[in-house]
Design a protein that fits this description.
Layout: E1 7-13, E2 19-28, E3 37-46, E4 49-57, H1 59-70, E5 77-81, E6 87-92, E7 98-104, E8 108-114, H2 120-133
Antiparallel strand pairs: 1-2, 2-3, 3-4, 5-6, 6-7, 7-8
Length: 134
């Protein structure tokens, strides 16, 4: 992955235009390949907010995101980042809508309600694999 070809790890958007995107811009090499960090940004847009928050993701973050997506059921949630600054949490409601919470301890916390397409978890697992291959 180069800085010229960013990849969306997360792209949640509803018909009203509210959206939350995690865009991976590139890698920061570690001492070993399994220590590489990904440079990313959380992009949040709604009528009341338009924000861009820096995010750094480790291979462990990606593993946790994958496990969370695979185990997601109504009434449960999963998260990405947050240990070193900004992060987001996704909670699947009983009606299959998502409560997406974006939190940056220095700036803001915001919750978006998004109605994703039915196959959104499969799509996001594919996005995760594209990021890992890049």
């Amino acid at each position: 992955m180069t800085d010229a070809d960013p990849t969306d790890l997360i792209h949640l958007e509803d018909p009203g235009g509210d959206r939350c995107v995690v865009r991976v811009a590139g890698r920061e090499p570690g001492l070993r390949d399994d220590h590489d960090m990904l440079r990313a940004a959380i992009l949040v847009h709604a009528d009341f907010v338009d924000a861009r928050l820096e995010l750094h993701l480790s291979p462990r973050d990606l593993d946790a995101w994958q496990a969370g997506l695979n185990g997601l059921r109504p009434g449960t949630g999963t998260s990405l980042g947050g240990e070193r600054g900004a992060g987001l949490a996704v909670h699947l409601q009983e009606d299959r809508s998502l409560a997406v919470t974006v939190h940056d301890p220095d700036r803001l916390s915001v919750v978006l309600w998004i109605q994703p397409p039915e196959n959104w978890t499969d799509e996001h697992l594919e996005r995760l694999e594209r990021v890992r291959r890049s």
